[in-house]
Each structure stands twice: as C-alpha cells, then as structure tokens.
Amino acid sequence: MGLRSKLRMSASVVQQGMKEIRRSVTYMPRPGDGAPRGVTLIPGDGIGPLVTHAVEQVMEAMHAPIYFEKYDVHGDMRRVPEEVLDSIRKNKVCLKGGLRTPVGGGVSSLNVQLRKDLDLYASLVNCFNLPGLPTRHHNVDIVVIRENTEGEYSGLEHEVVPGVVESLKVMSKFCSERIAKYAFEYAYLNNRKQVTAVHKANIMKLADGLFLESCRHVATKYPGIKYNEIIVDNCCMQLVSKPEQFDVMVTPNLYGNLVANTAAGIAGGTGVMPGGNVGADHAVFEQGASAGNVGKEKMVEQKKANPVALLLSSAMMLRHLQFPSFADRLETAVKRVISEGICRTKDLGGDSTTQQVVDAVIANLD
C-alpha cells in the first residue's frame, strides 16, 4: 500500500472517530471558570417581592449559574443599609424590585441614593414592541439612555424664605460627556444607527447648552452614527405621534425619566419594559420604566402583578454577566408567552396571576 493510500485511510479513521465522540452543545458556558455568580437581591416594596420571586423561580428552572444574596430593604428607611451596599460592591450586580419613595417630607429616595453611592451614572431602558401585544404604534424599538447622577436629581434644595424654595439643577461637563460616550458606544456596539440628544437649551442655555456641547463633541468621534437633537417638549409630541423615528436617545436626568415612561407606554406599558442602572464597576437591574412603582394594594393582595418587565431585566443581567445563552432562552420564553396571549396580567388585557405567568414562562423554556 502506497503512502498516499495510507494517509487516506488514516484520515478516514480519524473522521469516523470524531463522529463517534461528537456531542451536542446544550449551552455556551461563561468565559473563564464558569463558576456561579453571586447577585444581590432586593425584593423591595409592594409588588416587588412577587416579581422578584418570579425571577427566582425561573432562574432555578433554567439552572442559571447564579445565586442570590437577599436583603430586606424598604423605601421608608433613612438609608440603604451598609451591608447591602457591601454586598453589591462585592457581587458587582444587583436585581431589585421597586422601593416606595415617600412624596414630600424629608425622606429621600433610596433609588436615587443607590445610584449616587454606587455611581450608577447610566440608566438604560429598552422600549420595544412585543409580538402579539397590540399597540397603537408598530416598529418601536427605542433605547433611552439617561444621565443618572446629577441634573434636577442632585437633591440640592433649600427654603430661602418662608414660601420660597430654591432647587438647584447641576450639570457638569464630565458627567455630560460620560453619558454621551456611553450612548454612542452603546449604539456602536449594538449596531444602532442614530443617537438623539434631548434638551431644553432654548431656555436653559447654560445647563442644557453644556449638555448639548458635550454630545456634539462626542458625536464627532463616531462618524458612522447619525446624530441629531430635539427639544424635550417637541420630543414628547413626536414620541406619541411617530415613535418609530427614534433609535437611541440620550438625555439629562429628569427628561430621561419622562421620555422613558412615555416611550414605554407607547410600546406596550411599563409592565413589560426592562431596564438597568449601570456604572463603571456596578450594575443594578430593575423594571425599566416607573422603577419606583410598587403597584396598588389590590394588585398585591390578588397576586396579579406583571413579572415580565423584571424577567426581561434579569435577561439583561444574564447578558451583562456573560451568560448570553441563558439570556436568550429566557427572552424567547417570555416572548412566546406574550405572543400566545393565553397568560396575561390585567395591564395587558388578561386576568392571570403572577404565578400563572411564571408557570407559562417555565413551560416555554427550551
């Protein structure tokens, strides 16, 4: 037998052996050691424990490589306990339900405290149409990226004289450029085509003018992404009339809160929109729009809160932790349940309980 014939026979044996030992890949493990990751869990107030428990059940059913460190935190506390902050700093990731924020009075928002203490400078809310969920507008897929640490939320207020209160809006070049860079980098990495800066620089010429200057400066470094600007009041009108024109939107703090909730309402409601608050070192994932919403007491009693927003937020968290296949499985299951239209909570036109939605999502996991 010649050398060429021997080589052919050898190659054939190797190929046959490879066929015998080849195994199907069930999931793509996380790069590195693949060890489970710790996640700080804050159930919060109102519907918070219901929807966070929904996430716990789905994660367990998926055998997701994470484990939760749960802490009891409520909106009427003076501060977030230091042990909770230490846990988030250690794990670098947190999942939370809504924390009730008292209206008026001297108690500040724990949601805002978390963002400041952990420097979670970017709020990201993804507002998009879900197949099978009827809405007035179609082809909506908007990402609202909001500066999260200054602006009107700086908390610098005082009473000058009885009956006159001064509230300071703080804008800095550093924070404005930082959020603009985050928005353009997000657009670049996610194949988005356009970034729109939302402002009120026609009136607040110095504060919002600085924000616009920062956005324009950063835009020059991303020539492949279209950049435009829109005044916030016109923005709201355009959102409710032609939302499909928007792609990525970058905003100062207060405007982003209003824009994200408006966009969420247009795309299907705050109960289905995921979101997260991200910094250089830490990330807190929660319901994207109306994150402080803790639901009505009747909804809590009947256990009919919508868990979809937090389930999709937890999928964002899994992707952040570099578990993309688990994130895909979860998102696919949730979208199937919405598309089927059998299990829907009251806000989506149904009468299902939280647990019924959870059971349906688990049944649709591949």
From TrEMBL:
Key words, A-Z: Magnesium, Manganese, Metal-binding, Mitochondrion, NAD, Oxidoreductase, Transit peptide, Tricarboxylic acid cycle
One Pfam family here: Iso_dh
PANTHER family: DECARBOXYLATING DEHYDROGENASES-ISOCITRATE, ISOPROPYLMALATE, TARTRATE, ISOCITRATE DEHYDROGENASE [NAD] REGULATORY SUBUNIT 1, MITOCHONDRIAL-RELATED
Compartments it resides in: Mitochondrion
Domain Isopropylmalate dehydrogenase-like intervals: 38-361
Coiled coil: none
Function of the molecule: Performs an essential role in the oxidative function of the citric acid cycle.
Family, as annotated: Belongs to the isocitrate and isopropylmalate dehydrogenases family.
GO biological process: tricarboxylic acid cycle
Protein name, as recorded: Isopropylmalate dehydrogenase-like domain-containing protein
GO-annotated molecular function: metal ion binding; oxidoreductase activity
An annotated GO cellular component: mitochondrion
Keyword Metal-binding included in the entry's annotation: yes
Source organism superkingdom: Eukaryota
UniProt xrefs under InterPro entries: Isocitrate_DH_NAD, IsoPropMal-DH-like_dom
